[in-house]
């Protein structure tokens, strides 16, 4: 017919071009429609006016109303990149101004930047970018910048006026992370010094009055959202195993309800991976009986970004999506189409006791406010259901009303060091939203003093200033500095990069192909065992085991095949490699590589210099590596108990146990002294990533610390 005729006159190239244009127009139209359909859109002009009028504005709105994705775009469209208040004012360096937006979590910063890039129609790192630790995706062109709150705190150190920004939005302020709380104090001060600077504090419905009062009665802008009723279902009995209960509930929903996706709240990556594997295995078994397919979508920070994106995909007809998330999905990420929420009722939290100085990660009941927020996720697009895997009694009696802000329950030494380096020395009188206890502050100062970051007068030392420059915990930063004088920065950088991944390196679950019988293959556990029982790895505990794995990975050309052959997670190794590259670059910039190392490296950071060493040289190098860690982690030292089956912390004699995943687990004979990287509280206090140390080192590095416990 006619149309066909007209079309056939076009060349293939032209046809492709027109098709591309048509699709782009369609895309823009859908995006515009979606943007206009969000609740904040109706308030666009009022919001822009309010930001121009008030130096500090609190924005409150139901999650999913468009605060995070839209507000920075509105400000950009209103010209805030040209100058504060949308007026043309040149920046000193002639650059454009940035519109910043902080997020408590890495996943949110990257996911939102990717979404907003799509909406704006540029690639991530172009007009819209993000910056998270060890991953900066911004360029000179970037005007809308999403970042973690921790990264903005670092930016304060290099540019205390935030002169690149005309406006900053502190998002998810109700989460009250440690970094957000410190930022609020710094930004409050900045806002009185830079009257043209604009500050937005955005939060879910809780706490808005408190933020307003803190910012001298700043106005609150309320974005009304829609919300449908959600029916709540409790269990009759406490659940012994909530992972199992959650899996069962997923299938009950799947077999009894026609539509609606499912969102499951769990506490961490481990649980999410386990449950994803359980669900997939059960799906395979039940494949014949299922009317519609079940699509399992896990989400956590370490998941590759293409896979993270899956949670936002529209669910195909005749299928159902199950999203497995942590409390990241409570407010930071909104997934459309969720009609069912399954809530385990727990959260993983950092706990720190200023009395014992013991910090540990523990899974604890979440707050009622969190539980209600989680339930609310089921009622965004229609009436929903929330299945709580705990009893009504626990909800009423075992859960706190609101979460405790992180600043009141965590180790403060990292932020205290950063504040000291910003020249904020009178911490007791700093204007905190919630002041940490004097004990917690003193404990942090003591720890920094014992690490040599502060002197007797509490002033920042040269060492402290260097430590503050490093984007890691003060104890790890101290190891790096020690390794610099001990000529083993190369290796310590490797170990530190591996430590963060140590939990994922041996996990064999996800590397196995679907349908493969696990018992037919040597398991990941055997492979872990192989590395852990090497004679010299055992001498150096988990730290040198990790180094050995890294070195082999590097020697084998970072090969995925080598990882498969050894049942090691290539993805985890790749992440460690990325962190290592960044950390090594920073160490070079800070001149941390020892003279001996530089000679051996010919200027480059050869990662595997151990290979060419003699046995003797290698042993001496290993001792220096271990000493570097002892220098940073003497506070985490523990001594073998008399019975020999557990350890006691040197400082307070608390019982602690070697984690079963450690190279030192059931080692014969057990080392008399160990240091650990972290404590995990599960059934007991477990030390994860342990290294034997000599008593002499402890006495040498921390005489003041161990005065009372007999260190020389
Ligand atoms: P708020 O910050 O008010 O909670 P958001 O701006 O995060 O709201 O979300 C607005 C809308 O954008 C929601 O409908 C959400 O589903 C969608 N959205 C947000 N992030 C993404 C993403 N990464 N991919 C796809 N859609 C997204
Ligand atoms: Mg948001």
Automatic annotation (TrEMBL):
Its main location: nucleus. It comes from the Eukaryota. Keywords: ATP-binding, Hydrolase, mRNA processing, mRNA splicing, Nucleotide-binding, Nucleus. It is found in: Nucleus. GO terms for biological process: mRNA splicing, via spliceosome; protein-RNA complex organization; ribonucleoprotein complex biogenesis. Residues 249-423 form the Helicase C-terminal domain. Its EC number is 3.6.4.13. Residues 48-224 form the Helicase ATP-binding domain. GO terms for molecular function: ATP binding; hydrolase activity; RNA binding; RNA helicase activity. One of its GO terms (cellular component) is U2-type catalytic step 1 spliceosome. Residues 507-530 are annotated as: Disordered. It catalyses: ATP + H2O = ADP + phosphate + H(+). This is RNA helicase. It comes from Dekkera bruxellensis (Brettanomyces custersii). The gene is PRP2. The chain holds residues 259 to 970 of 970 of the full protein.
């Amino acid at each position: 017919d006619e149309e066909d005729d007209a079309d056939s006159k076009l060349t293939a190239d032209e046809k492709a071009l027109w098709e591309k244009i048509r699709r782009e127009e369609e895309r823009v139209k859908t995006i515009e429609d979606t943007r206009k359909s969000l609740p904040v859109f109706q308030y666009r002009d009022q919001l822009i006016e309010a930001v121009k009028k008030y130096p500090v504005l609190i924005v409150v709105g139901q999650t999913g109303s468009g605060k995070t994705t839209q507000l920075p775009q509105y400000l950009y469209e209103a010209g805030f990149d040209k100058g504060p208040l949308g007026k043309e004012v040149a920046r000193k360096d002639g650059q454009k101004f940035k519109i910043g937006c902080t997020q408590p979590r890495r996943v949110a910063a990257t996911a939102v930047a990717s979404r907003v890039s799509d909406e704006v129609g540029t690639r991530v790192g172009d007009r819209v970018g993000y910056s998270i630790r060890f991953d900066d995706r911004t360029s000179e062109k970037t005007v809308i910048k999403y970042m973690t709150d921790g990264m903005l705190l670092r930016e304060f150190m290099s540019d205390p006026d935030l002169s690149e920004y005309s406006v900053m939005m502190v998002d998810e302020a109700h989460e009250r992370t440690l970094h957000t709380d410190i930022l609020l104090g710094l930004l409050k001060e900045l806002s009185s010094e830079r009257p043209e600077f604009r500050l937005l504090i955005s939060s879910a419905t809780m706490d808005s009055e408190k933020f307003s009062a803190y910012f001298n009665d700043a106005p609150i802008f309320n974005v009304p959202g829609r919300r449908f009723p959600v029916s709540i279902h409790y269990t009759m009995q406490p659940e012994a195993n909530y992972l199992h209960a959650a899996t069962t509930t997923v299938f009950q929903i799947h077999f009894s309800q026609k539509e609606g996706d499912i969102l499951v709240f769990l506490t961490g990556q481990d649980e999410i991976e386990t449950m994803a594997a359980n669900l997939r295995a059960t799906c395979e078994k039940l494949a014949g009986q299922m009317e519609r397919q079940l699509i399992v979508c896990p989400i956590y920070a370490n998941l590759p970004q293409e896979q993270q994106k899956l949670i936002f995909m529209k669910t195909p007809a005749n299928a159902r999506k199950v999203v497995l998330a942590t409390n990241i999905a409570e407010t930071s990420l909104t997934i459309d189409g969720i009609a069912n929420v399954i809530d385990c009722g727990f959260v993983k939290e950092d706990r720190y006791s200023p009395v014992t100085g013991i910090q540990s990660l523990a899974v604890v009941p979440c707050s009622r406010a969190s539980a209600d927020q989680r339930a609310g996720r089921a009622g965004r697009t229609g009436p929903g259901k929330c299945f709580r895997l705990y009893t009504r009694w626990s909800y009423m009696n075992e859960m706190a009303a609101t979460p405790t802000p992180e600043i009141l329950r965590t180790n403060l030494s990292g932020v205290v060091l950063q504040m000291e380096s910003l020249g904020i020395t009178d911490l007791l009188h700093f204007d905190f939203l919630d002041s940490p206890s004097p004990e917690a502050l003193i404990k942090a100062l003591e720890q920094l003093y014992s690490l040599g970051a502060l002197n007797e007068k509490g002033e920042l030392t040269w060492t402290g200033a260097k430590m503050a420059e490093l984007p890691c915990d003060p104890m790890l930063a101290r190891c790096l500095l020690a390794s610099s004088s001990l000529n083993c920065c190369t290796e310590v950088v490797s170990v530190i990069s591996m430590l963060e991944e140590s939990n994922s390196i041996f996990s064999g679950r996800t590397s196995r192909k679907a349908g493969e019988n696990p018992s037919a293959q040597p398991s990941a556990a055997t492979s872990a065992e192989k590395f852990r029982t090497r004679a010299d790895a055992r001498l150096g505990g988990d730290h040198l085991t990790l180094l050995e794995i890294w070195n082999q990975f590097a020697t084998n050309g970072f090969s995925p095949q080598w990882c498969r052959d050894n049942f090691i997670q290539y993805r985890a190794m790749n992440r460690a490699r990325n962190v290592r590259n960044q950390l090594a670059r920073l160490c070079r910039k800070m001149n941390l590589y020892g003279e001996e190392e530089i000679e051996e490296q010919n200027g480059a950071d050869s990662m595997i210099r151990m290979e060419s060493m003699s046995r003797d040289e290698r042993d001496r190098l290993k001792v220096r590596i271990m000493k570097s860690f002892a220098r940073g982690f003497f506070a985490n030292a523990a001594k073998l108990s008399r019975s020999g089956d557990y350890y006691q912390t040197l400082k307070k004699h608390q019982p602690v146990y070697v984690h079963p995943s450690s190279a030192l687990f059931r080692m014969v004979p057990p080392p008399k002294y160990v240091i650990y990287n972290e404590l995990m509280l599960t059934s007991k206090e477990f030390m994860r990533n342990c290294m034997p140390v000599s008593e002499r080192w402890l006495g040498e590095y921390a005489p003041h610390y161990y005065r009372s416990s007999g260190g020389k």
